[in-house]
Amino acid sequence: MSRVGRMPITVPPGVVVSIKQDEVTVTGPKGELSRQFNPDMSITLKNNSLLVSRPSDNRVHRSLHGLTRSLLANMVEGVTSGFEKKLEIVGVGYRAEKVEDKLVIRVGYSHTTEVLPLPGVSLAVEGANYIKVTGINKEVVNQMAAEIRAIRPPDAYKGKGIRYAGELVHLKTGKAVGKKT
Asked: 83-164 falls under which CATH superfamily?
């Protein structure tokens, strides 16, 4: 039995879960999320907790068991508290600013880079060097953060670029200058 898959998901008060065959809709104070799951997985709601069970110990069913439970837990957490990803811009002259709903990033290129938020995601700039990506869908929030980071990933030698807050960047030492004898 999957350790992750068999754990129940507690549904907090104020969250409504509706299950129609293989589609689950979760509605909460932050919004509504809907997703289709594999019809082999059975999802039940008992005493304010969601349970996921699988029909057999087939390899495919075992892999879907934990995945289905994790996706459901992320949906419940998203509509109650939401998700947030912070990015940090490191480098002299590197900065970001919010213009209307777009994010304008200057990271050493000859031009500025404009980023439009994905649907269901909001972007905020704290100071000039911190970007905050928030939303209710964990998958979309992380995708947006990855797209912003891909504009200028951290450099291996100086560490300049866009990184996740708290990300550890290992710097390479560069060329060793030897003495001639």
From this structure: Ribosomal protein L6 (3.90.930.12)
Structure tokens, 163: 């990184």
C-alpha span between 87 and 125 (Å, rounded)? 10
Residue 75's SS3 state is helix
- Return left, alpha or beta for 57; rule: phi > 0 is left, psi -120 to 50 is alpha, else beta: alpha
List every span in the chain annotated with CATH 3.90.930.12.
Answer: 9-80, 83-164
Name, in order, each residue with C-beta under 8 angstroms of 6's C-beta and a sequence gap of 6 or more.
Answer: 52, 65, 69
Q: Please provide the CATH number assigned to the domain covering 9-80.
A: 3.90.930.12
The one-letter code for the residue type at 24 is V
Structure-token match 């700039």, residue found: 125
Indicate the angle between helix axes 59-80 and 138-149, nearest 10 degrees. 90
Cβ of 3: how many Cβ atoms within 10 Å? 8
Mean pLDDT of 28-45: 94
Number of residues assigned to the chain: 181
Q: What is the per-residue pLDDT across 123-153, written as a single tens digit (0 to 9) for each?
A: 999 998 999 999 999 999 999 999 999 999 9
